[in-house]
Specification:
Shape: globular
Oligomer: single chain
Bound molecules: zinc ion
Number of strands: 7
Structural class: alpha+beta
Distance between the termini: 60 Å
């Protein structure tokens, strides 16, 4: 069951340790499948865990339910550098409460609707939706390509030039 669920989730860095299912929510308890982490300073692997903490991260819905990853994260200590660092995952940025793929999906839907409507549909505060949208828009900006940043204003400007 867990292996099928992990295949469905498609987040190779984590293993599922339990699930909770309610009418509206699907909570996936999970943790890293790796026993060690690389020190960001010296790049040496370490297994020395200083502490564990929980992090709740919104992910893409499954069968109409909101999905939350209840992720057990670790803070490691590097014996060489004598530094502490938190483990990182490719699917979520540090200190974020939404997965990358959730943000990309939300932004795609916001292009067809208003932030406020997206916020209501997703049960999020609209400034949160706006912040996610702006973050993802910034990701799409390539060096020397400032025009895409302008979004709606840019479209209005182009329309103005054409008329
Ligand atoms: Zn180190």
């Amino acid at each position: 069951m867990t292996i099928e669920l992990e295949a469905l989730l498609n987040l190779p860095e984590i293993e599922v340790t339990g699930i909770e299912l309610t009418e509206q929510q699907f909570v996936v308890h999970c943790r890293s499948r790796f026993g060690e982490a690389l020190c960001p300073n010296c790049l040496r692997p370490t297994k020395e865990v200083k502490k564990y903490y929980q992090r709740t991260i919104r992910d893409l819905p499954i069968t109409g339910r909101d999905v939350y990853l209840d992720l057990e994260e670790r803070q490691f200590s590097c014996p060489d550098c004598e530094r502490y660092f938190s483990e990182r995952f490719a699917f979520v940025e540090p200190n974020r409460t939404t997965t990358q793929r959730y943000e990309v999906d939300l932004c795609a839907r916001c292009e067809k609707t208003a932030f406020a409507q997206g916020a209501v549909l997703e049960n999020l505060a609209w400034p949160v939706v706006q912040a996610i949208y702006e973050r993802q828009a910034a990701r799409q900006v390539e060096p020397g390509d400032q025009v895409r940043w302008l979004g709606i204003d840019d479209i209005a400007l182009r329309k103005g030039q054409n008329s």
